[in-house]
Amino acid sequence: MEPTKDANGVAWCTGSGYAIRRQALENIGGWPVGSLAEDTFTSSLLLGSGWKTAFCHEALQYGTVPDTFTGHLKQRTRWTLGTLQTALKLKFCMFGPLVKGMSFFARLSAFVFAIDAFFKIFLLIALLTIPIVLVSGGQLVAYSTNAQLRWQIRLCFASLILTRFNEWITYLPSGYRLAQRDTGAQLWMAPFHAMTIVRSFILPSWLGGKAMAFSSSGSIKSELNERDPKTRAPLLRRLKVILWDCDVYLHLLYILFVIAAVSYSTVIGIQHSSNIHKLLIYLLTHAFWPPMLWLLSVTACCEPIRYAIWPPTMPDREQLLDRDPKTGIARPKEHWKKQRYTKTTFWHEFQYSGVTIFTAVIFFGAFFI
């Protein structure tokens, strides 16, 4: 995202890897408080005061990231909550003295990111809508004539192809695989983001509402030690902590619910279709409407469960570094700077490509409906 934002002059000063002029910091009144995302808050105040920000698309600094599942959840939900806190304090960057120096693109960027945080709730609702509609006997696609259905299929195909082209182009700066992994994470993280927003902004304390505390990403530890093969907690304990304590049982229930809904809908279609043509139309307008978003959602929700069972094994931190014996300064080894590919990497792309091919087949088949 940052290279795209930088091209529009609205880059964020993210995390600890940025430099700032003292004059600029003093001009905005020092480090701002009142938001868990202090880096984005600082960036918005700088842009609002007429200062410029820039993103250096070069690996100059390597920091500490969460090395546990609980640490990852706390970091990502803190980002979402902090973005909303910043937006509320700055009136969504639409007006006010703190943002009077912002350009149009700076205001637009801040507004879109804030609204996107709220849309985590609607994303969760959308994920639940598909199986609810199927299990209740409804259909996902409404149409009155075959001509309408053909046009919906054509538009669906065009939307998917344009989306794929957009991904290939916009993912170039960060790498296609990294961006696709982040997209999948948005799906399975949706319940955590939604619950964080509801608890922090909507629910009163007597109904379970509570404020989130700040914890730096590198300081969040876990007794599971899931990435250390020597001290890793046993499987049953990992499942208990991740599935129950971290609420991943919600993902398991969702997976079972979707599979049951799709199976039920398909069986009903087979039982009530008098010929193959009606059966194909039924399946198409119910569970198998391209690009079968329920399949991509189920795969994404399997990710935290797969992590609990087969966590990655990470080498000791010193094995990743080249340390200068005289100065003690350590730098990452070149080998560990490169992105690595695993079986799950190819499985995701195989599934995504399969869905694209399926949509194309339906598109060409629509000419014969």
List the helices and strands and how they pair.
Layout: H1 2-7, H2 22-27, H3 38-48, H4 69-89, H5 104-135, H6 146-170, H7 176-202, H8 235-245, H9 249-272, H10 276-285, H11 293-309, E1 321-323, E2 330-332, H12 334-337, H13 343-365
Antiparallel strand pairs: 1-2
How would you describe what is shown here?
- By secondary structure, the protein is mainly alpha-helical.
- Helices cover 59% and strands 2% of the residues.
- Strands 1-2 form a two-stranded antiparallel ribbon.
- Helix 8 (235-245) packs across helix 11 (293-309).
- The radius of gyration is 24 Å and the shape is globular.
- The mean pLDDT is 89.
Keywords:
single chain; 369 residues; mainly alpha; two-stranded antiparallel ribbon
Tell me briefly what this model is:
The chain is 59% helix and 2% strand. It is built from 13 helices and two strands, in the order H-H-H-H-H-H-H-H-H-H-H-E-E-H-H. The chain has a two-stranded antiparallel ribbon.
Helix content: 55-70%
Mean pLDDT over the full residue set: 89
Query: How far from one another are the termini?
Result: 41 Å
Q: Could you describe the largest sheet, including whether it forms a barrel?
A: 2 strands, antiparallel
Shape, per Cα inertia axes:
globular
What is the number of helices? 13
Strand order of the largest sheet: 1-2
- Backbone structural class: mainly alpha
Radius of gyration based on Cα positions: 24 Å
Low-confidence stretches: none
Strand content range = under 5%
Number of strands: 2
String of helices and strands: HHHHHHHHHHHEEHH
